[in-house]
Structures are given as C-alpha cells and as structure tokens.
C-alpha cells in the first residue's frame, strides 16, 4: 500500500533529479503556511473530495437500483438506435468485464484504493486533485458496494452494468467515474501538479 501511495501520492521531500516549488494550485489558493506552521485550505479540498465522491456514489447507487428494478430480465432499451443501449448484466470481473475469474482480487484492490485515497487526503491542498480523487473514491465505493452486498456472496458479488455502446463492453457510472478520475490524475501528473498543491519540474 505504501508503494501505491508513493506512485500516485506526493513525497514529503523532492526526489533526486527533481525540483519542487510551492506554487499555488490551479484554483489560485494561497499556499503560504499559517503562523502555527500549517497551510490553510486543506479542509476545503477535503470537503470537495468527499462531496464529489458522495455525488458519484449516490448517482451510481440510484442508477443501479433503477436498473435492477426496471431493466433486469427485460429486453435492452435503445437510447440512440443500436449505437447505445441500456442492457442490464451482472459482471463478476473488473471494469468493462475484464477478469471475471478474479472477483475477490478486484474487491481487495478496490478496498486498497479507498484506503490509499483516505491517506492521501491528509496532505491534499489541490482542488483538481480533490476532484480526481473524489471521482476515484466514489466509483470504487460504488463497485465495492456491489461486491459486498450482491449475489452470489460477500466479496464475490457481481457488479451491475447497464451502459452498452455498440461494439464496446457494458459498464456503469462507477466505471465512468473511475476512468474520468484516472484520466484527470494522468493529466495533472503531466502538468507536474502534486496533491499537496506544489508543482515539480523533472
């Protein structure tokens, strides 16, 4: 877990060969330390993280409840002709149906991601990172809820998927949140912006 945090997190000190500057993040917040040595603004970033996570989680949960009640065991619903359908399936694998034989492993990975995000929140001073981590957290919680509470059993539950583009795997809103959060993290990393709000130059 420490290795995972090192990869997507921010070390407390710059590594050899890199330069780190205490530049304000994209929101332009003041990153100067307070008289007691603490930097202001972390509480607001954490609030953004959990607000985004709660919204993504609630949207995923409500959508799955509707799909199970109204669409499961029924014919697919055409949304945009045959290019996009709502087609309810149960997925034992990871996002987009990958790895159906490793349900328990994906459950443990989702739980580990959630723990890492909570640990990163302790040094979060960047609004863009708060949004990205919130999307990851909400999506991971959405699919983990299925793993724990749906059949065939605890930690082996199958995820409800229903968004079916033509020629592509069926997925759900939690998968979408995870992918969007991951893409945003990659973009922020390319820009050199770290979760603590500093910008590093390699």
Summary?
With 202 residues, this protein is an alpha+beta fold. The protein has helices spanning 2-8, 42-70, 103-120, 127-149, 173-191, and strands at residues 19-21, 77-80, 84-91, 159-165, 199-201. The protein has 5 helices and 5 strands; from the N terminus they run H-E-H-E-E-H-H-E-H-E.
Query: What's the arrangement of strands in the largest beta sheet?
Result: 2-3-4
Quote the beta fraction: 5-15%
Stretches where pLDDT is under 50 for at least 5 consecutive residues are: 1-19, 25-30
Which radius of gyration do the C-alpha atoms yield?
19 Å
- Report the order of strands and helices: HEHEEHHEHE
Mean of residue pLDDT values: 80
The number of strands is 5
Largest sheet: 3 strands, antiparallel
* Apparent shape: elongated
Distance between the termini: 25 Å
Number of helices: 5
Task: Work out the helicity level.
Answer: 40-55%
Which structural traits does this protein have?
single chain; 202 residues; alpha+beta; two-stranded antiparallel ribbon; 5 helices; 12% strand; disordered N terminus
């Amino acid at each position: 877990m420490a290795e995972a945090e090192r990869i997507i997190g921010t070390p407390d000190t710059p590594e050899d060969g890199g330069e780190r500057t205490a530049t304000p993040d994209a929101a332009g917040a003041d990153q100067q330390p307070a008289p007691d040595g603490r930097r202001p603004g972390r509480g607001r970033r954490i609030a953004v993280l959990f607000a985004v996570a709660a919204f993504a989680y609630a949207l995923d949960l409500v959508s799955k409840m509707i799909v199970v009640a109204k669409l499961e065991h029924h014919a697919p619903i055409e949304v945009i002709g045959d290019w996009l359908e709502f087609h309810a399936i149960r997925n034992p694998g990871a996002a987009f149906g990958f790895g159906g034989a490793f349900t328990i492993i994906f459950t443990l990975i989702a739980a580990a991601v959630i723990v890492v995000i909570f640990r990163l929140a302790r040094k979060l001073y960047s609004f863009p990172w708060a949004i990205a981590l919130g999307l990851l957290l909400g999506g991971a919680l959405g699919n983990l809820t299925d793993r724990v509470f749906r059949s065939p059993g605890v930690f082996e539950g199958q995820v409800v998927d229903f968004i079916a583009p033509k020629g592509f795997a069926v997925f759900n809103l939690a998968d979408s949140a995870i992918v969007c959060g991951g893409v945003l993290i990659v973009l922020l990393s390319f820009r050199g912006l770290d979760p603590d709000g500093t910008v590093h130059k390699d």
